[in-house]
Amino acid sequence: MIHISTADSKERIVEIKASVILYRNRPAVLAVMRDVTERIREQEALVESKEKLARLRKMESLGLLAGGVAHDLNNVLSGIVSYPGLILSDLPEDSDLREPMETMQESGRRAAAIVQDLLTVVRGVIISKSPLNLNEVVKSYLKTPEYKRLLQYHPDVQVEVDLDPKLLNMKGSPVHTGKAVMNLVSNACEAIEGGGRVTISTRNRYLDRPLKGYDDINIGEYVVLAVADNGPGISPDDLNRVFEPFYTKKKMGRSGTGLGLTLVWNVVQDHDGYIDVRSGKDGTEFDLHFPITRDVLALKTSSIPLEELCGSGEMILVVDDVRSQREISCRMLEKLGYRTEAVSGGEQAVEYLKDRSADLVLLDMIMDPGINGRETYEKIKKIHPGQKAIIVSGFAETDEVKETMRLGAGRFIMKPLSLEDLGTAVKEELAR
């Protein structure tokens, strides 16, 4: 097969077959030329589709594994994060125990942040989205301790920022898009050997025809976050696997968990966006395309002092299959001025409420053995149709959580719990 150019400068692929024949009693060559352009392109498209499907299935399988691990880790971390907060609230300011307690709490929070990265790898979870501007997400990241530490690790790397002042809004999660920014910038800095340059930029982009890149990007209006470096580039083989969990050429531990670009991929998927990656000997650029929204940004709300989150002795039923989780939740609620009772499963909660009442049910979503949080709430609603409830879980917000909230549960909060998050959720649900 050979490539030829037609009279109108279009490239075609042709197949030539030749055979020796006798023509007028003399040897001759018979050549047949056939245009196979469309057949070859269809074959290439089929191979590409199969590769993308296989990659997607692998990412989803690894995401499910990560989600199960994250759920168990969040349950374990609850004590490390929640108990120091309770102890600190009772310690005098000059206590010798305050510093080690704060260190323990901060270590737990950092571990919980890694678990959140694992949960971001999980496909199919529901994340809260609101209008946001990517410029503000980038500016927030540039003020973080993580960014300052990154610059200390790479003093010879210059970071340039070019943000479009007229950038349109998108609908998304500031936390998740912020993690995408952090991981792309970290990856770019670590890709540079010696001195170099990393550029963070944003722009509006309108596509009037599909764009074929790492992802096939549909027609539409997008805001684009681009992170580029002038490092040595990524080889074609590595580029095909660069978004897989734990596939990294960096040193594990110093450079993170190996989930950075996997997290970026999932954030983009969860925001109905697209990724384009270009890499060569002069460097690499990641372009994240997010659909725009015409909705305006929400007003910022200030945090509520802990004293204003306290209750007035309302009765709260805590439902959790893990004993330590029940104890932590009860201790925190009692600290906030509520009365508590605790049961170890959904069936026990239903039995308890047959002849008693609770102002609020704090309901774990995943319980084993027995019925889960959604099934428990359905049965409770048959006894007390107006029962107020808050859903808690060490996993992420799933379709099961969404269905439970549709049935009437008011809020969803993630483990490990903090006094502020729990107090705010309970206060809002009781007032609903």
Structure report:
By secondary structure, the chain is α/β, with parallel strands linked by helices. The chain folds into 4 domains: 2-35, no CATH class; 40-120, Signal transduction histidine kinase, dimerisation/phosphotransfer (DHp) domain (Helix Hairpins, Orthogonal Bundle), CATH 1.10.287.130; 131-293, Histidine kinase-like ATPase, C-terminal domain (Heat Shock Protein 90); 306-431, Response regulator (Rossmann fold), CATH 3.40.50.2300. It is 42% helix and 25% strand. The strands form 4 sheets. Strands 4, 5, 6, 7, 10, 11 and 12 form a 7-stranded mixed beta sheet that branches. Helix 1 runs antiparallel to helix 2 and helix 9 (346-352) packs parallel to helix 10 (373-383). It is elongated. It starts with a strand and ends with a helix.
Do you know the CATH architecture of the largest domain? 2-Layer Sandwich
Span between N and C termini?
71 Å
Q: What is the beta-strand fraction?
A: 25-35%
- The DSSP helix count reads 12
CATH topology of the largest domain: Heat Shock Protein 90
Q: What value does the average pLDDT take?
A: 85
Main sheet specs: 7 strands, mixed
Helix content: 40-55%
At the first level of CATH, what is the class of the largest domain? Alpha Beta
Radius of gyration: 28 Å
- CATH homologous superfamily assignment of the largest domain: Histidine kinase-like ATPase, C-terminal domain
Write down the secondary-structure element order: EEEHHEHHEEHEEEEHHEEEHEHEHEHEH
Number of domains: 4
Structural class category:
alpha/beta
The backbone outline, from C-alpha atoms, is elongated
